[in-house]
Amino acid sequence: MAAIPSRTLEAWLDYLERIHPVGIDLGLDRVAEVARRMGLLANRLAPRVITVAGTNGKGSTVAMIEALARAHGLTTAAYTSPHLLRYNERLRLDGAEADDATLIAGFEAVEAARLADEPVSLTYFEAGTLAALWAIARHSPELAVLEVGLGGRLDAVNVIDADVAVITTIALDHAAFLGTDLAGIGREKAGIMRAGSPAILGSGELPDSVRQCAEACGAPILALGQEFRWQAGAPDRFRWQGTVDDDASPSLEDLPDPGLPLDNAATALQALAAAGIALDEVSCRLALRELRVPGRMQWLGQWCLDVGHNPHAAGYLAERLSTQPCRGRTWVLLGMLADKDADGVIEALATVADGWVAVTLAGERARAAADLAGRIEDQGGRVAYQAESPEAGAEWLSGRLAPDDRVLVCGSFFMVAAILAWKQAQSAWLGQEGK
Length: 435
Description:
Layout: H1 9-18, H2 29-37, E1 48-53, H3 58-71, E2 76-79, E3 91-93, E4 96-97, H4 100-115, H5 124-139, E5 143-147, E6 164-167, H6 175-178, H7 182-189, E7 199-201, H8 208-217, E8 221-223, E9 229-232, E10 237-241, E11 251-256, H9 262-274, H10 281-290, E12 298-300, E13 303-305, H11 311-322, E14 330-334, H12 342-349, E15 355-359, H13 369-378, E16 383-387, H14 390-398, E17 406-410, H15 413-433
Parallel strand pairs: 1-5, 1-6, 2-5, 6-7, 7-8, 13-17, 14-15, 14-17, 15-16
Antiparallel strand pairs: 2-3, 3-4, 9-10, 10-11, 12-13
């Protein structure tokens, strides 16, 4: 086999995007073969592995599990996707983003393994997942938290057996790959479950197929509203009660609301308890109080950024904003991909939107601002501006905001990433002007 060429991280990512004929190619045979060659299947990835699947809430649940574990003194690794600004965001080791050298070494290990013997073709996501798993194995954390990419059963992350499997929510998304049957989607997500390992069901509205899969494979079920629950307490506080192996029911009082779905917070706590971690009330309070997850109800001044891009996520955003009265207008800066349910998202956000700015995203899957604007107006919304890019929409809107107005930026990871970068550039420019 020829020597693996030296590449920068950016060059590796560009190379990986070009070597497989399609971007998404569900199935475990190819990725499992390369994982076997890399030695990833011969030993446990970590003493505890928690895998998180679902339609919405995966990223925030992973972040909460990680933060809570670190507050309890555990060493951790967390793998998530997609990223917002830097690929390095996808892998965190003890809370810090992986550096370029770690990721490059992982890609080199993947490339050497996939070209050994009979070459194996991998997608960008599959190669990235294997590189992350390789880095995690070498970091030797006490807890690894893995976020499933798209499905579950056939997702590259599922080559690793989970000690605790978490299903957050089930809703319609990625219909081209997962279909529109919620029961079928539930079965795909439930494919991360393993016999004898706890299955945490983090929503009270999961299709019956999820529980049926857990029962069929012999995974003990811990369900929200049954084996664990949360209750609202004082303003911005909640109480959690869960279940552990000995059928004890630990409870935690006066926990701070992390500004994320409390269903997910309760699920994160139960996942750690199921993994054998004795939860300390003080440590949990500290972790939840200090937690910040980029792109999830992230406030930057008057701007709220959230990657929600389907009706279920949009409904949560509208609910959260409705509990935070605004003296001025609420603007929605919306950009979406063509394969997403724009009508459902618009309907969910219409209850809080006073005005809309529709934008066009770049790329083959983009939906034009004019298309979005037409759909908004068909539902009775007022579109103040149509922009050719997220940045153009933000520039137009920023010059017209009243002091008491607020802006919700949502509809896509690409949308939030663009506005985050725009905000950073704006701050840098203002910093230079002040010198």
